[in-house]
């Protein structure tokens, strides 16, 4: 079980820190919630303690795995011949898993497509979102600023 101060990842939102555990009444039902402070945008999320497994909340990777994530970004990628809609859905499914390596693959694939052929508006937004999610986890894993983590992502493909 998680505790106050833990660094966690909430799929599709990124990494944050458990700020507190509070009881809240919602629609007449009192439940315990993790209050997550998300460094990007200073957003706060409430995650029902009982739903942690269902939503995929997990610990931030440790610093030792950061290089493995960066290695995924450096791997060569053949461009998919699928239409943008199929690519988009496949990438979205990977992002929903919350797996750091799957998100790194999405970032790698979209960066490669952007360099070679350009991105649709939807894919560009997805690249921005996936980059923010990945950078938020790398920032907490390495105790660095979000901007520094984004630079790491950008330079990993050079």
Overview of this protein structure:
The protein contains six helices and five strands. The chain has a five-stranded antiparallel beta sheet. It folds into two domains: 7-59, Thrombin, subunit H, CATH 2.40.10; 63-156, Methane Monooxygenase Hydroxylase, Chain G, domain 1 (Up-down Bundle), CATH 1.20.58.1290. The model has no long low-confidence stretch (mean pLDDT 91). The chain has helices at 52-55, 66-74, 84-97, 100-116, 121-142, 146-156; strands spanning 7-10, 14-26, 29-38, 43-48, 58-59. Helix content is 49%, strand content 22%. By secondary structure, the chain is an alpha+beta fold. β3 (29-38) and β4 form a beta hairpin. The relative contact order is 0.16.
Instruction: Give the CATH level 1 class of the largest domain.
Output: Mainly Alpha
Q: Largest sheet at a glance?
A: 5 strands, antiparallel
Tally of separate domains: 2
DSSP E strands, number: 5
* CATH 4th-level superfamily of the largest domain: CarD-like, C-terminal domain
Terminal CA distance reads 39 Å
> How many helices in DSSP terms?
6
- Average pLDDT reading: 91
Strand order across the largest sheet: 4-3-2-1-5
Task: Please trace the helix and strand order, writing H or E for each element.
Answer: EEEEHEHHHHH
Low-confidence parts? none
Could you say what the CATH topology of the largest domain is called? Methane Monooxygenase Hydroxylase, Chain G, domain 1
Query: Tell me, what's the shape?
Result: globular
Q: Calculate Rg over CA atoms.
A: 17 Å
CATH architecture of the largest domain: Up-down Bundle
Give the helix/strand class. alpha+beta
Share of helix, binned: 40-55%
- What share of the residues does DSSP label as strand, in percent? 15-25%
